[in-house]
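Hey,

The postdoc asked me to send both predictions to you directly instead of through the lab channel. I've kept everything plain text so nothing gets mangled by the mail client. Protein one:
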Amino acid sequence: MAAPIDQLRGLRVIEIMQDLLSSDSSDDDDDIIDVQLLRNNARRRRWGEVPKVENFIRDVVDKYSEPEFKSDFRVFRETCNYLIELFEQSVYCPRGAPFGGVEAKSAEEHILYYLW
């Protein structure tokens, strides 16, 4: 059985295709955009690409105001920093050489991803 997200994607593809087939010439610009979205989505799924913002924590999260931080992570920044310290000291925090060629994420990244 397909996952619900895959079913929704499939329904969206069908909806776009039906719209493309039934549209008139005044919708040509929208059609081009829809086709580009379909192609990009198919490529991403095929190659396993996920769009990412590089250095998101350093460039974005670290610049959050206190209300923005609390809104996104549901805890105060001070509480989050305390959790990061606890996790860094625990046996569960990954340490050492990269595993499988992938560098281990920091304790901060683990906690922020978990809270997000």
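Protein two:
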Amino acid sequence: MAKRFTRRSLLLVSGHAAIIGLAAACNSQAVPLSTSVPAQPPTAASAAQTPAATSAGAAATAAPTVATSAQSVPDVPREQTLVMSVSDSVNQMTDSEIMNAFLTGAQRTGWHFAFEPLGFYNPYWTQQVSGPSWIPGSQNGEIPYLATRYEYSPDYSGITINLRPGVTWSDGQPFTARDVVFTLNMLRDNAPNLLWSFDMQLWLKEATAADDLTVKLALNNPNPRFMVQFLQWHQDQGFPIVPEHIWKDQDPTTFTNFDLDKGWPITTGPWRLVLSEPTQKIWDRRDDWWGAKTGFHSLPAMKRIVVLPRYEDSKLTQLLIANQVDCVHNLQNPADAEVVMARNPKIAIRTPDKSKPWGWLDWWPNALSFNDMKAPYDDPDIRWAINYAIDRRAIVDVGFQGQSTETLIPLPAYTPMLPFFDAVKDLQQQYPIGTSDPSKTEQIMQSKGYAKDGDGFWSKDGQRFSIVILTPPGFFENFAPIIVAQLRKAGFDASFKAPTNEATLIGTGDADAYINGHLASVRDPYLSMNLYHSQYSAPNGESAPQPMRWKNPEYDKIMDQLGKLPASDPNFSQLYHRAMEIWYKELPDIPTVQWYLILPVNTSYWKGWPDVNNPYSAPAPWHRGAATLLINTLEPA
């Protein structure tokens, strides 16, 4: 997700509304934008019991008690409670009885901070700030946690990991190398039925424990990115290590890891789950946390965390104004952030003086993607015809009111990545991906035997060229209508919709086109580029690990070579350039914009939030690469 956001004039906002109206008129199933503030969500624990929404210009100041509806859950004062709205399903959490992060139904509703990783990687690191100041040993964005160090073998086919002494599970059992070994081998042995199991089957030959604090990994092939790809959490990347003594007698493909009476989930973090409902999850502090006992870090300042579902931006705006939430999912419309900051002076943003840009660059550059196995999208010329119909500048100016940037490459624009952007500028001249030219669309479509019908849409053999674009519910409402309007203007009968089973439809090849993001690379291009490897494809009707369903044998061969090389290898740049030449020529999907996270945070009760001067993380509470760092860094305001 990667985007930078700034605001533009009322003229652009009006243009945005006009385009949205056009798209909605074109498709009765188009996702409408909210026009009114929805009803209040349940407050923290019945939920966090907080004041009603305040009037414009005034923020709530009371610090009420966090009351609960469950008889066994005591009340906690609001000023001792962190309230966060996370991501995934809108308005209700669908995983209220799931705490197995390896099941497809698991969401980011608490396991991502209850479990702790071997380490973190902070893509926002600077020479002054690598990670939180309280974690010693952070360097170049690498933040040690349950592990203190790791070392690759000279050929990158093996890894030695040293664990931190004194770590214990929440039931008092020691955390050892056996837990790491068990988790990795369990995933490998249950492929492809668990999340991350395909990757472990692909890469992991064997995990072994040399002693209680030393893990040895033998890989099937050299992989200089294994740690950052799987074991150093960042953004939404990485999986938890689970306790062998709990999981060894369970079937991981069905085990929910949820039983409050048994204290499940058993984790290493300082939190225990005390209430789990579709409308909220409540986690109370566990004061026997290993970190406080060993001197690694003091107990978190808050005594309770209330996790609320994701809401649409209008409701998040209301909650922030009323001090009913401390941190939220990113606001997609910069205008909402302006409203929040105008009405609640306690709201902070990425820049301390609230100057723009407000957005945190995420690892999720957006694209208009297709099922490349399915006609007519299996034809690169058709994909190029659609590309020429898209005006990225208009998407930025209107959809994001200037607070984003165009992208012509499927990579996030983090500082270590920028040389790889420069390295393919010659290819962008040879293959003019950034050109918006409907006349080129017309030339290609006519060469393919299409002609415009009486309504101005491309047709062939009596069939109109229709494009139904899927989006995740609640996402891309600010620019999906713009893309639809541009495509319709160029002669494509385009529409968009956001079904609740959007991810399933895309994964099984039952979607023709969709808007989403690419998540993988943060330090060099390989992980994102490898998403296009045909090993992640599958026949239509079967679930694919990556849904583009594009196949190019030469590209695959280059990816196989690149995956074994660190970016510093002299051969890496040449192979990368050749792979991108193939990619641009065939254009398996169409990059549109970088994704930036607008993340207002509430300083009424908590301080110590990251900002541009102290970027130890982004304040994204649903990210496993951020939540623990935020929680353990915040202090009472």
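Summary for protein two, as requested: The CA atoms of residues 136 and 144 lie 8 Å apart.

Thanks,
C.
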